[in-house]
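Budget justification aside, the reviewers requested a transparent look at the raw inputs and outputs of the sequence design task funded under Objective 1. We therefore reproduce one unedited record. The lines immediately below are the structure tokens for a 264-residue chain.
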């Protein structure tokens, strides 16, 4: 969803960060359980792979269908189901996003036999996917982030001034604190730093794929993360922060993901 350049305001995410969004009064109420829609694979009845799609702040799950994300999975003849999740900004504001993803999406998915779960997140959905991967090590088989929100510009500037994520030290977390239940953006960047091998940890990190438009308003942060990832897992396109760019990126990224194909 493209956001207008006027009436921008800061909305607290409830996880120690702030997201620049428009129309602050339009945040929907978070419901329990979080609403989901399952799109079954058309080539296999029982599959073990699930793609969990998280929308942007003011997008709705049906936009993944409208913009061809679901049909692209089917056209690629992948043995994977797709779950569209109504993870709107209200869940970030009331600090329940990680709890609801765990209780309403991941736990039922495992109960239904999904052995490999991927998160595909756009904008704040990409942020939520990264937070979930950080706080639930070993649960995800992969994360795809399209134009993810990665925190305020000041944090990214500090990382850039240090020479990039590999050189950035930042405030180190207390080893005795364990994995934070609700990490802030600094803690997220510390976790992302592990993708370049700076932080030695036993906690596994799922494969991370990044896509963004070169004129995206968050591109400064995206480039910092891109430098920490293998080149084959970074995708760019012309344009900014909207569905045409995300659709082009998804069409390019999907064939490169290690997902199972249809039988035969």
């Amino acid at each position: 969803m493209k956001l207008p350049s006027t009436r921008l305001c800061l909305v607290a995410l409830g996880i120690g960060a702030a997201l620049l969004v428009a129309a602050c009064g339009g945040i929907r109420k978070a419901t329990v359980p979080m609403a989901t829609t399952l799109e079954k694979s058309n080539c296999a009845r029982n599959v073990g792979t699930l793609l969990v799609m998280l929308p942007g702040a003011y997008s709705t799950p049906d936009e993944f269908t409208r913009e061809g994300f679901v049909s692209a999975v089917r056209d690629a003849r992948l043995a994977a189901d797709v779950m569209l999740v109504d993870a709107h900004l209200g869940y970030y504001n009331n600090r329940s996003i990680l709890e609801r993803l765990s209780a309403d999406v991941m736990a039922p998915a495992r109960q239904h036999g999904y052995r490999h779960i991927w998160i595909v997140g756009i904008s704040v959905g990409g942020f939520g996917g990264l937070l979930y991967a950080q706080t639930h090590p070993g649960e995800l088989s992969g994360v795809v982030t399209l134009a993810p929100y990665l925190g305020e510009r000041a944090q990214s500037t500090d990382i850039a001034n240090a020479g990039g994520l590999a050189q950035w030290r930042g405030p180190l977390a207390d080893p005795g604190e364990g994995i934070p239940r609700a990490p802030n953006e600094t803690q997220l960047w510390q976790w992302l730093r592990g993708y370049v091998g700076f932080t030695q940890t036993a906690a596994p990190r799922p494969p991370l794929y990044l896509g963004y438009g070169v004129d995206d308003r968050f591109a400064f942060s995206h480039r910092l993360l891109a430098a920490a990832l293998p080149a084959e897992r970074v995708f760019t396109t012309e344009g900014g922060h909207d569905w045409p760019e995300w659709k082009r990126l998804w069409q390019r990224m999907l064939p490169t993901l290690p997902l199972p194909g249809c039988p035969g």
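The domain at 8-172+180-256 is CATH 3.40.50.1820 (Rossmann fold). The chain has one domain: 8-172+180-256. Computational costs for records of this kind are itemized in the attached budget.
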